[in-house]
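Practice record 12: protein with 6-O-phosphono-beta-D-fructofuranose.
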Amino acid sequence: MKHIAVFTSGGDSPGMNACIRAVVRTALYEGLQVSGIYRGFQGLIENDFVEMNGHSVSNIIQLGGTILLSARSADFRTAEGRRKAYEHLKARGIDGLVAIGGDGTFTGANVFMQEYPDLAIVGCPGTIDNDLYGTDYTIGYDTAINTAMAAIDNIKDTANAHGRLFFVEVMGRDAGFIALLSGLATGAEDILIPEFHTDLDDLVARLEDGFTKKKNSSIVVVAEGDDAGGAFQVAEEVKKRLTNPVDVKVTVLGHVQRGGRPTCMERVRAGRMGMSAVYALLEGQRGVMIGEINRQIVYTPFEQAIKHNFEINPSILKMVKVLA
Ligand code: F6P
């Protein structure tokens, strides 16, 4: 292997830049040529490459977003789009790719490699959602939960000053990890996540119980993909059922969770994963995602990583019930 390329794809996440930096610096250290591809698969189809050197990644370790930009590519879902992408890689003599992204990215990478078996792609898990099997943490998750926690702390101050009930919506279309940890870290009254059915009557009973115990304010953290709906919908339903007259407010945190300076753990982990991805390519690995489990680097085939067969730890769930 002589020439590799790196790209970021799907929803961006803090720490992606630290990962790009590690891929580039490791490749150069090992004597490889390294290119960047702008806007993920879309840039690959449109031949949007940039030659990377040591300076290309200077002073980016602390930045959120991604210097290579990102996109969700509809064209890459077509065989014609993938054919163009393959031809650009071959014309440039690129034989290895590092894809930094989430389940959509690895689904695309898998199809691409099945069609073109001479391609080697290794993935680094980049998503704030933490919803990939085969790693304890995805790149971006730690920063996102800390951003959400800080925002909810602020909301708690004002909720308490006015004795209000707040529904705070956090990101997570299919996964409740952001809601779970940010809710636990802020002492939320309840946490609603897509992995479990939400019983609104139970929630109301729990909130009413809090009011009888003279709790001045309450926070309910709602993952955007919860089966009862987003925070606005849940708040409306709860308001109809509450017997106590409570002032109810809703805050949607949205994309504030996607940006910002990556935390210390994020930068170090992203660097380790980026470096490991290059060594995995050099070892002859293909079609695997780099992950960190119990502090060890592990490889998980893309098909398994994207299956969403992770479980929420029952002892963490118990904390929600016991400690609120
Ligand atoms: O996958 C990361 C994520 O931030 C999800 O939590 C969220 O549902 C989605 O991306 C939002 O995507 P977009 O920025 O394209 O609206």
